[in-house]
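Quality-control log, excerpt.
Job 1 of 2 completed; input and output follow.
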Amino acid sequence: MNSSLTEQARCLTHRVASLTGDPAMERRHEELMEWAEAELGMDREYAEQMYALAEEEQLPPVYALLLVHCGIGVQELEEPEQDADEAAHQAAPPEWVETERVELEDVAMERRLRTTFRRFRGQMESAGTPAAAVAAFLAETDVGPVRLR
């Protein structure tokens, strides 16, 4: 991310700093969901999904909710262009194979969220404090404003 702090980066920095000693860190699942709805303006169903993803990625859910709320994460690299051989391959299974339809946007969003949560967790493990983790996370070149909801 560039040296100037964006609105999203300021949001994350401020929100994480305000958590120090905040009971939000120790809240039970239900209380955290109510906090996400009331304080972060997050839809309950989406907050539940973020909570579940955060637990799978071993990130304290409060940080996942803040990353999503502030809209900061790992930015996707541009997709490589297909060469002629790749373009000739069939992208979808034949019609006779029954598959459950998944929206591409949902898959891409989940990948972006998981990548963001893993990267932030790594910073939390190595930085020592949440504030230092935020600073290290924001200093990464592929971290910046992203749409996470």
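Job 2 of 2 completed; input and output follow.
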Amino acid sequence: MDTAKTEGVDPLYDGHQGFDWETVERALGEIEDGLDDEAQRQKLRVALAEILRFICGVRLRPGADAWIGRRCIALCWVVNPELFGGVSLTKLAESIGHHKMALSPKAADATRKFNVRNRFQAHGWQHNQQRQSARSTNPLPEDAETDEENKPDQHGAEGEDDG
């Protein structure tokens, strides 16, 4: 290779910026044009509905918005911790003013529900034990909410009816 041509060139310089690679890749069948197929759109709707059902599956009452928010944060962290700067769940919980147990059960639920884990969950003892047995030997801190307060009822909505 002739190094004289590359000396002094920024290694991040995109020398092909004027070439339409996308058109070539599409013509070769390397890129699909998105969700043109109704079956693909239906699969996306079903997946999105399941995600939203996981996040919002609580009985609406005062405080439900915070619970839904923490459940959403936990799911997003499980899927992609980089959304929060690639920090551990403990650091993420601390950054929003909570103990890690405010997010940990929700992250474990998301992992079990969607069978997705991230690099921070490699030690994941909760995948081999029941949450209930862990709680009996490891009491929750005062600021951690219990999932017993928001457990699913017979209709799949979480939270107990106050009346």
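Post-run check on job 2. The radius of gyration is 23 Å.
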